């Protein structure tokens, strides 16, 4: 019997547009012989099942929908929602309460990895190298001097929570620092100021594949802009994404082992992506993405394909790992 899969997308942040693109790719490649796929769009105003130009309200009591007189219940949720409430653990808490299986990390892992400062604090205790950083809250009355006492220039300033590099800046001059913090605080309640580590930017996807934790291929990010931001990721062509990365086999092995280690110690589920800077043969953690992008341009599908895993198998495996 075919399983009913809710591909959950949209969300309450600026990443909603990317979530919708990820959902389109997932629905395009999921095996139609195994799954009945339904797009479920979440916004602050409504939760709806979208089908053939019509919208059907989601009953939040059991996450079902009445479509043409038939009650649609779901066997599993495929999480394709970046940003809040899908990537910060809020939605996972709801699904846990109603007993609905889902393909992403759980509440705790999502909440930790969504908060960059928490991620650094936790993983540094496990011996993972991280950049020097500090957090600035909207309520803080902080001076440039106080920031520079902890983090030197140049540095990166970005929202402490969120993804797609929305609100991110690279700061070279002292005079630019406060405006960069203000820019980040327009996106979230906290900004993180992080030391700039000059090196090669790498990213590695990790999944649970046929019961085992598996690091996919490693990608190298070559960006002609100062910041690999939302525009560089999704709009213009200023970024070159090289899969596999041009790194020595020893570094590749180390990066894959470290990525699998992080996945395991955090207790992750589903697909994640971990970003690093490689400086003088040392890997420094940047962040962990608990629901990575799944668009045609996104890293994880590229990395899986290089590892011999098609999008159809990648997405289907995520569901089967949950249902088993």
In short:
With 324 residues, this protein is of the alpha+beta class. The protein has ten helices and 16 strands. The strands form three sheets. The protein has a seven-stranded mixed beta sheet with strand order 6-5-4-3-2-1-7, covered by helices on one side.
Poorly predicted residue ranges: none
Number of helices: 10
Structural class: alpha+beta
Identify the overall geometry: globular
* Overall pLDDT score: 93
Q: Mind telling me which CATH architecture of the largest domain this is?
A: 2-Layer Sandwich
- Tell me the span between the first and last alpha carbons: 15 Å
- Tell me the helix content: 25-40%
CATH topology call of the largest domain:
D-amino Acid Aminotransferase, Chain A, domain 1
Return the domain count: 3
Task: Trace the largest sheet across and list its strands.
Answer: 6-5-4-3-2-1-7
Oligomeric state: single chain
What is the radius of gyration?
Answer: 20 Å
Helix and strand sequence: EHEEEEEEHHHEHEEHEEEHEHEEHH
How many E strands?
Answer: 16
CATH superfamily of the largest domain: ATP-grasp fold, B domain
Largest sheet: 7 strands, mixed
CATH class of the largest domain: Alpha Beta
Estimate the strand proportion.
Answer: 25-35%
């Amino acid at each position: 019997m075919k399983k009913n899969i809710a591909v959950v997308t949209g969300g309450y942040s600026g990443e909603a547009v990317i979530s919708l693109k990820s959902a389109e790719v997932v629905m395009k490649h999921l095996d139609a012989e195994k799954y009945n796929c339904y797009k479920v769009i979440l916004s602050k105003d409504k939760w709806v099942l979208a089908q053939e130009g019509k919208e059907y309200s989601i009953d939040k009591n059991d996450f079902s929908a009445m479509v043409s007189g038939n009650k649609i219940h779901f066997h599993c949720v495929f999480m394709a929602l970046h940003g809040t409430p899908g990537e910060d653990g809020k939605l996972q808490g709801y699904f846990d309460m109603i007993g609905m299986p889902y393909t992403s990390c759980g509440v705790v892992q999502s909440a930790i990895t969504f908060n960059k400062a928490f991620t650094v604090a936790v993983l540094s205790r496990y011996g993972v190298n991280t950049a020097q950083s500090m957090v600035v809250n909207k309520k803080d009355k902080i001076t440039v001097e106080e920031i520079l006492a902890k983090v030197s220039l140049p540095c990166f300033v970005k929202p402490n929570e969120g993804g797609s590099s929305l609100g991110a800046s690279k700061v070279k001059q002292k005079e630019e620092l406060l405006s960069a913090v203000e820019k980040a605080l327009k996106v979230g309640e906290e900004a993180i100021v992080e030391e700039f580590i000059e090196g090669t930017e790498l990213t590695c996807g990790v999944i649970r594949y046929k019961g085992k934790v598996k690091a996919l291929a490693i990608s190298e990010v070559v960006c002609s802009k100062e910041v690999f931001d939302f525009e560089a990721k999704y709009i213009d062509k200023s970024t070159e994404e090289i899969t596999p990365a041009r790194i020595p086999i020893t570094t590749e092995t180390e990066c894959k082992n470290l990525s699998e280690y992080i996945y395991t110690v955090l207790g992750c589920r589903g697909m994640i992506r971990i970003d690093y800077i490689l400086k003088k043969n040392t890997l420094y953690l940047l962040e962990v993405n608990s629901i990575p992008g799944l668009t045609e341009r996104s890293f994880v599908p590229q990395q899986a394909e290089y590892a011999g895993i098609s999008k159809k198998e990648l997405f289907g495996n995520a569901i089967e790992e949950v249902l088993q």
